[in-house]
Specification:
Length: about 80
């Protein structure tokens, strides 16, 4: 068996948090995250996600609303 060593690097950045609620996409901008500098994968702290969930449950008005095209994936 071969042991692989991962040398991942992360940077503290602000990133969008995107979630689907009742068929609608909701985007929360400027969320603190650890971002993998090679892959762009984002990691959000549990406390941050809890704050986002509380914010979404409060049903506060969004700062803006956008439209986006939707495409079906054709395999």
């Amino acid at each position: 068996m071969m042991n692989e060593t991962w040398n991942e690097r992360f940077a503290e950045q602000q990133a969008p948090y995107i979630v689907e609620i009742d068929g609608e996409l909701v985007i929360i901008q400027h969320v603190p995250a650890r971002v993998n500098t090679e892959t762009g994968e984002r990691f959000f702290a549990p406390a941050t996600v809890e704050k986002i969930q509380t914010m979404l449950r409060s049903r506060q008005a969004p700062s803006k609303v956008i439209q986006a095209p939707v495409f079906e994936f054709a395999a």
